[in-house]
Amino acid sequence: MSKILKDQRPLTARKKKKKSLLKIFFLACFGFFLFAVITGFAGAVFVYHQYSDNLPDVRTLRDYHPSTITWVYSDMDDLMAEFYIEKRIMVPLNEIPVHLKQAALAVEDSNFYHHFGIDPKAIFRAFLTNLQAGHVVEGGSTITQQLSKTLFLSRAKTLERKLREAILAIRMELIFTKDEILEMYLNQIYYGHGSYGVEAAARTYFGKHVQELSINESAMITSLPKAPNNYSPYRNLAKARKRRNHVIHRMAHLGFITKSEAEKALKAEIQLGGITNMLNKAPYFVEHVRQFLVEQFGSNKLYRGGLKVFTTLNMDFQKAAQNSVIENLRIADKRYGYRGPIGYLDFYQDDSGLRQTLRELNKFKEGEEPAEGSIVKALVKEVSDEDILILLSDGEGIIEFKDMDWARKPDISLDGKWAKIKKPADALTPGDLVYVKTGSFREEDVRRSVYLEQTPEVEAGLICIDHKTGHIKAMVGGFDFSKSQFNRSVQAIRQPGSAFKPIIYTAAIREGYSPASIIIDSPIIFKEKDDSFEKWKPVNFEEKFYGPTSLRTALTHSRNIVTVKLLQNIGVKQAVQTARDLGITSHLEDNLSIALGSSGTTLYELTSVYATFANMGQRIEPISVRYIKNREDEEVYTSTPKVTQSISSGVAYIITNLLQSVVQNGTGKAVKILNRPVAGKTGTTNNYVDAWFLGYTPELVTGVWVGKDKDEPLGANETGSRAAIPIWLRFMQRALKNAPVKNFPISDEIVYTKINRETGNPASSDDEEGKFEIFLSDHLPESITTSSILTEDNTF
Fold first, then answer.
1. CA-CA distances (angstroms) from residue 717 to 405, 412, 539?
2. How far apart are the first and last CA of the chain?
């Protein structure tokens, strides 16, 4: 018994000793843990105070307004243009597909809804991965951290930035819900090719709205933020597909999608929509609006503020205007001769190599064929006496001689009508790189019919105004905005020539003249100055003199001498004041030469003058913007038309009536085929440098200018009738295609009375040689009898 007790005592002691050691160990561990916690807490407090200074206040995100697109709309509220620095379109979280949100979480932050802004597990996992790789291959940033970095911090890879990022992320988690953070993230992050946010990315990569994305498309988009340039399917499709597949596998692993959905998504081809540049369907008009917006709101608000700009432009009219300018400038340019090839190629090399070169020059993809009517670069391969064999990027074409006999050497002294080439070799040689317009395939072989083209050297401007509202309905400032942003309809100051004459006649009518007033068309010479030997002798275009001429006849046939004498009679100051009343702001010379349009003005100004004639003397300053809303859909600008009665309705109607005579019997008769009431006036300057036509119907006013930027002559006989009217006519035919025919409204300030054709004096009612003319009711010619005044409406 004693032996047993003897053996038990040491065992009990040993147990007690073991328990004591364990107690000490646990106390040491607890102490170490407590020390670590206290030290960690102290360290965290130190880090927080050390790196939280001067951090931005995340509460400002309550009023989160990232840079967004400014949209520009037409008169029918159709989207026509956009302005942005960051291409971002905000969408609420509930409009983003669930599978896109899941794809983002799967690849960026699968524990997003469970952490507090930073994810220790992800940080530790990234640490081990990077340690194993020997360099940084994985980050441990959460979505909240990425958002805080994007919104508030630089991209510098430093410990200080990471600590600040973590502090901001925690602050954000304390203030915002997880859904709010995810919504900000999906609208903020950069996805490549100028696109910020998932909606802009969906449009950039797939040409559709984010709501329309499939699983594989969502995976493609959410795979990009890590390295948009590296994983862009436009730059490296194989790498993009591999990265997309990684996202799909992650989604399946996390149970976001089923195995069958994953397999289907992995097999899906990446069908890209094509990168679209900044939308702009009316470049010259949009640039005009842009300048207005910068003046009104500043550049920052324009490019970042998400404005909605509702303009006056009619897109159908604009398309018609752009097409009319391009088509007719190509036609007109051919009258001025062929300026030669745009380059040369070694045509002896293999055809396949040449076609590849042509594809590259035309920026065509492999297998892409130019549509019929396209203007493309092509190679002259063979030249015969009858036609030319042309090598295209997708085959061959034939230019028949009859379709290129315009291609003479340029000579402004010759009318192209009478200076055509005799054979194809006079213009083209093998190896020439030329522009051609593609036609249809010929019946006799597999080659296309093609037509020789060149980029016009001549430019044009067109502006169309609804004179009843002042709204600008169409604006074209040149042949190609991508080559020249100079807006010739607004910015170009050019001599208007005879297109200025209606202003002189307006001043005269205001002073008591009438369409029946007679002025002698005879030679006249003016000294430039009283003490000068230099003389100015105005002449008519026909270089003839016509004797006694009524104002109606003078304006109808654009007689220069009558207009100069008329200006001399009423005085230059009176004419200049009338021009100012009508809206001309450009500098006007203080001499008689302004009668012939010697002082420069813009097409914009001159068209607005004719709009005043069309609007019964009431001038409405042209308007390009109706109203503007901000991103909260609040109206921040509304146009207020500036309306003035510049001239009386009677004077305006007389001018309209005179300009109708120009169309019926004078220099503007080419537009008679419009088959509706038209008033208008041509203009041609010395040496055919500028060509104009300003014309209007009861519905629309349109002005057209044609010329070269360097003030060089267009060519022989390139008058307003020949160069400008075709553009005006083609546009108005399209613009008024479905409009009912209307007559111009008649002012109650005018009367018609019979006059003698020769003298302009009143004629008796039984005078068979007499004709009815229009007068202001308070400026009737002397000796008019009641029986000679018409009481019913009459037109000429």
1. 19, 10, 17
2. 150
For residue 257, the 8-state DSSP code is S
Instruction: State which H helix or E strand residue 789 sits in.
Output: none
Residue by residue, DSSP assigns 221-244 as: HHTSTT-HHHH-TTT-HHHHHHHH
The pLDDT confidence band at residue 34, using thresholds 50, 70 and 90, is low
Residue 590: Cβ-neighbour burial (10 angstroms; 0-12, 13-18, 19+): exposed
Per-residue pLDDT, 40: 47
Of the residues 108, 165, 396, 699, which is catalytic? 108
pLDDT value at position 794?
37
pLDDT bin (cut points 50, 70, 90) of residue 121 is: confident
What element of type H or E holds 209? none
- Amino acid of residue 90: M
Two structure tokens written together for 554: 């003078």
Enumerate residues 6+ apart whose C-beta is below 8 A from 135: none
Q: Which residues, 6 or more positions from 294, have their beta carbon under 8 angstroms from its beta carbon?
A: 302
The identity of residue 664, as a single letter, is Q
Q: Is the pLDDT of residue 170 over 80?
A: yes
Across 215-232, average pLDDT: 93
The helix (run of H) or strand (run of E) holding residue 9 is helix 2-51
Contact 754, 771 (CB under 8 A): yes
Q: How far apart are CA 760 and CA 722, in angstroms?
A: 33
The answer to whether residue 108 is catalytic is yes
By C-alpha distance, which of 404, 325, 331, 413 is closest to 717? 413
* CA-only gyration radius of the chain, Å: 39
CA angle 718, 719, 725 (to 5 degrees): 110
Q: What are phi and psi of 655, to 5 degrees?
A: -65, -45
Q: Say which residues have a Cβ less than 8 Å from residue 44's Cβ, sequence separation at least 6.
A: none
Contact between residue 223 and residue 249 where contact means Cβ atoms under 8 Å apart: no
Alpha helices in 482-571 (DSSP H): 501-510, 551-556, 560-570
Residue 498 falls in the annotated catalytic set = yes
Catalytic option among 74, 393, 498, 608: 498
Q: Please, which pLDDT band fits residue 305 given cuts at 50, 70 and 90?
A: very high
Report residue 755 as tokens.
């006059």
Q: Tell me how far apart the alpha carbons of residues 168 and 162 are, in angstroms, rounded to a whole number.
A: 10
Q: What is the pLDDT of residues 641-661, one digit of tens each?
A: 999 999 999 999 999 999 999
